[in-house]
Amino acid sequence: MTSSTALLTDRYELTMVDAAIRAGTHDRRSVFEAFGRSLPAGRRYGVVAGTGRLLELIGDFRFQDAELEFLREQRVVSTPTLEWLANYRFSGTITGYREGEIYFPNSPILVVEASFAEGVLLETLILSVLNYDSSVAGAASRMVSAARGRPLAEMGSRRTGERSAVAAARAAYIAGFAATSNLEAGRTWGVPTMGTAAHAFTMLHDTEEEAFRAQVAALGAGTTLLVDTYDVAEGVRTAVRVAGPELGAVRLDSGDLLTLVSTVRAQLDELGNRDTKITVTNDLDEYTIAALAATPVDSFGVGTSVVTGSGSPAAGMVYKLVARQDSQGEWISVAKKSPEKATHGGRKHPVRLLDASGTASSETIYVGATAPAIVRGRTLHSALMTDGVADPAYTGGQGVEAARERRATALRELPAEAFRLAAGDPALPTVYVDAPTTRR
Amino acid sequence: MTSSTALLTDRYELTMVDAAIRAGTHDRRSVFEAFGRSLPAGRRYGVVAGTGRLLELIGDFRFQDAELEFLREQRVVSTPTLEWLANYRFSGTITGYREGEIYFPNSPILVVEASFAEGVLLETLILSVLNYDSSVAGAASRMVSAARGRPLAEMGSRRTGERSAVAAARAAYIAGFAATSNLEAGRTWGVPTMGTAAHAFTMLHDTEEEAFRAQVAALGAGTTLLVDTYDVAEGVRTAVRVAGPELGAVRLDSGDLLTLVSTVRAQLDELGNRDTKITVTNDLDEYTIAALAATPVDSFGVGTSVVTGSGSPAAGMVYKLVARQDSQGEWISVAKKSPEKATHGGRKHPVRLLDASGTASSETIYVGATAPAIVRGRTLHSALMTDGVADPAYTGGQGVEAARERRATALRELPAEAFRLAAGDPALPTVYVDAPTTRR
């Protein structure tokens, strides 16, 4: 697989550049904005994710010989455009919500300022990353709240594309998950990894006891034994007999967990294994996690629902031109007028207004040339990339850790209704405040 | 990004290998099977996709210094296991449904025969690829039927992870889509690419006419002009004025398409542009495509719904140990007994039985040592990889073309109810025929 990300894009981004170069309009300075018109169905808030890895992917967005040859052979663009692409390196500025920040409908999550051609080329890549990663983070964050302090592990690698799996593990960790099963996410992003054994390991051996002995010999008594391959009560007895009082945990991956967890807890206690924990992993989502929070469960493993955004596998973000220079170099706001897809033109300055107690009261978006003076609230835009250079605070493993911290902090500002699982309105209203002129 | 795929896996695959090596059970010959317990909600059939690229990814599943160093540092496995992994190269045999084949609940889509350790290591990667790609192909295939012969383009790259986007374009093409917007899918898999311009291109210019002139200058009059940035009727007039009678197509991306398509068709005809086509692209899925098939629309562009599997973003396949040698080298079938996750042990020989007219009547799965003699039907298993070497007929661009052809052919065998969009039972029943003994 090539490391260039330049063809991870829609063909029309390149034909637009081609036509603009021919028309002499490609160099008009432009402002593009990524935002979601609404939150995924009934959610109260969203979590921005993907920003850090996006900044790295933009650095790899270069057209090298192999990419240029493909474009030439397929006649995607003309020769002058091939020459322009050969020298392409994003040199613009990206301002936006920092990764882990909370967002609401129309929050201007990313603002790209560059020439039209430089900015439009990144559209597909920006949306692929933000839409998928924020979908996972938004779902994961609700699961973390539903678990009421018990740790969650992301185990859904097998339920999404093999590279999306790495992004999903990263996004779930940012949203408060404690660990992932995905090893590449451990290597690339420093996410803690976990996992012990599947049913196949039990079935490889002639008896469940033989399998448990093999696992304890390799991983120690503190391991987690999967006890539901055959009969749960028998599995628990065997696990305790093999691992003794030091047995770390038992895992339940089937059955009616609401009743089973209590039964197994009582059995473990009776056998003297009061410190042995119970982890559950059977097709959980935020609703079953909330229901299980009333049982003596100790931790959760979540697969399909978290890596597929729990019913909303794409966060619904779009990337729109909102301002540009005209042929005289004057800035003008632009907006699409088609009925259900109208956009709000102009450069935005978003602020999370806070009330006297420090609770967020609105997502207020000032539109205009300069940021307003804020009385009580947080400005939400930071410089993520300046003249093509990413701020290293937002990339790599340190970016992931900072994003995880940021999501936890930002969530504490939200009003109580933000944490309702039931479908409803966003927890904060989005309010536009237009400056007298939207020129900048 | 590293080209090794060896860490695109769950940690527990490695800890199981570690424990099995320590117990001396890792070399027991084993049969693993990938299958789905059911089809995605209410679907009548599934389409196998991902096989060809999976075979290539398995070839890159090697533990090199960087991977081994990570595993050592994180203490994932013991030193003897690190040595075993350093020499790991999958040397087993993979039999299965060829890509593009139709499948039903419990169809044994992929059968992996190898040592336990070699086979279990591939679980996560196999499922990631098959689950995502088959999810897209299953949804795409229904859209193709709903379009009743009109071509569809896959344009959903921005609505899924950036590498999943390439897989989605490939899977949709296998399922009968005509083209994709994704350039990397064009380069890597030979999928035809398409696309012209977005609203941003119109808004870059001072007038819609200026934008259309720029696009026609670069791409010719045969291009597709996007006419709904401001006012559709005005947009169509401008498009025809600029491009003349040779205008290839107009694209509608908003509004009530059911009425708009007819209005625009009438307007184009009145302006003398009877050969100018109409393409529509506004959040379509199989249901809106079916409804639009009654209008004078010429082609469809589909985004979110196809790359997210139209409500079922993971096909639900699992990978289970179904047979293994015991400590004496005797083959035994194994099966999990937990209530809702019971598996059917043993080596399978699936056959699509056909009636006298050549219409498929059942998915019959013979369980046992040898394949039965089939009176009327197709055996569904082919050798995809032998002793670690993939059959080149199934990989690369030629594998994609063959898979696309295969899906079309296999679909023609199905009974009429297979093409109903409404939720219902699978179009064929899955029938097990157990041999007197399941030893092989």
Automatic annotation (TrEMBL), chains A, B:
Pathway: Cofactor biosynthesis; NAD(+) biosynthesis; nicotinate D-ribonucleotide from nicotinate: step 1/1. It comes from Herbiconiux aconitum. It catalyses: 5-phospho-alpha-D-ribose 1-diphosphate + nicotinate + ATP + H2O = nicotinate beta-D-ribonucleotide + ADP + phosphate + diphosphate. Residues 7-131 form the Nicotinate phosphoribosyltransferase N-terminal domain. Keywords: Glycosyltransferase, Ligase, Phosphoprotein, Pyridine nucleotide biosynthesis, Transferase. This is Nicotinate phosphoribosyltransferase. InterPro entries: Aldolase_TIM (IPR013785), NAPRTase_N (IPR040727), Nic_PRibTrfase-Fam (IPR007229), Nic_PRibTrfase_pncB (IPR006405), Nicotinate_pribotase-like_C (IPR036068). The lineage of its organism: Bacteria, Bacillati, Actinomycetota, Actinomycetes, Micrococcales. Catalyzes the first step in the biosynthesis of NAD from nicotinic acid, the ATP-dependent synthesis of beta-nicotinate D-ribonucleotide from nicotinate and 5-phospho-D-ribose 1-phosphate. Transiently phosphorylated on a His residue during the reaction cycle. Phosphorylation strongly increases the affinity for substrates and increases the rate of nicotinate D-ribonucleotide production. Dephosphorylation regenerates the low-affinity form of the enzyme, leading to product release.
